[in-house]
Fold this sequence. Notes:
Layout: E1 51-55, E2 61-65, E3 77-81, E4 86-93, H1 97-104, E5 117-120, H2 123-134, H3 136-149, E6 155-161, E7 167-173, H4 181-191, E8 194-199, H5 202-209, H6 220-223, H7 233-238, H8 245-248, H9 263-270, E9 280-282, E10 285-293, E11 298-303, E12 310-314, H10 315-326, H11 367-386
Parallel strand pairs: 7-8
Antiparallel strand pairs: 1-2, 1-4, 3-4, 3-5, 6-7, 9-10, 10-11, 11-12
Amino acid sequence: MGCSSCSTGKDGQPRGCKNNGTCGTDGCNKLTVFDWLSNMTLPNGQEPFDCVEVRFKNSRKEFFRNKDNLTLSIGDIVATEASPGHDVGMVTLVGELVKVQMKKKRVEYTDENLPKIYRKASQKDIDIWQAARDREASVQKRSRELAIRLQLQMKISDVEFQGDGSKATFYYTAEERVDFRQLIKDMARAFNTRIEMRQIGYRQEAARLGGVGSCGRELCCSTWLTDFRSVNTASARYQQLSLNPQKLAGQCGKLKCCLNYELDAYLDALKDFPNQDERLKTKKGEAVCQKVDIFKGLMWYAYEGEWANWFVFTTDQANEIIQLNKKKQIVTSLEEYALDLSNDTKTEFENVVGQDSLTRFDRPKNKKGRNKRRRNKNNKQKRSRNA
């Protein structure tokens, strides 16, 4: 973790701020923006930018106007305008970089209807805000029970209370349209607050809940990934991956976002490869592509009807044969062009420290040799007694 409150303790164990990404130093949040202009002063006569960036629970960030010219810095708790009442959040960015972030998020900083910051949060505001956040777990459990009782096909994945506790936003996922009018009435009666329902996708749900992926690390969507690009099975085909839904699907049930990370490198490498549907025409018959090794630049072909006998070619050799076929020239056979890949017998690992093999107990024991040594030992003992 980058923040001091999440660093390693004296005993080597991670301490953890236990605030789930909302610690005061803002170093363990995936939406943290580094202020590289913090040690620079403004030119003479230029007024500081009057908008600030405020972060709320999870991945919600909004921009507010500082009309009262409050002295704010990163990490300050502020009370902001909301409808109704006010909300409480943490300042994550101030200064000229806020203008860059607003332009990136396509928010007009000249908009007069931009919400404003009321004040720095007092201790009373923070206590109310913390008490509202402590209720979220129990409210979420109770709301799920109400949805199950009404037999609604939906899953309430998260609850977010407004800073003053006057409104609760319920995030849910559903495959079809859900009529939750009766559910809102029951929840308003049970929780005595204003209710807002907001539907999210399965990837947004995984980002909010978090978890560990098949790679052994935390989910990308819950640590640093903020934009969810579409992923299709073509990405797996280009990378020669098995189309196994259990291996390609992430925790959200959709295709893993990491399938797109190396896709561009594979597409660049595949530009030198001929189309795998192209057949090589020879006098012995037509050959079909069976396998491709993108990293080594090799292709394996086999004659029709002789699928067990493969011949390996480089991409240049395969392209050469295809060009000859286009000129209506047929090569004699694949054996003239095929490579002879001898097995690499180079030892990659050598035991230089004298460690025993892990499979030494798997070797079968020689019972005959053991019995012979036992008989020789017994004979020696008899001779010594007779002497």
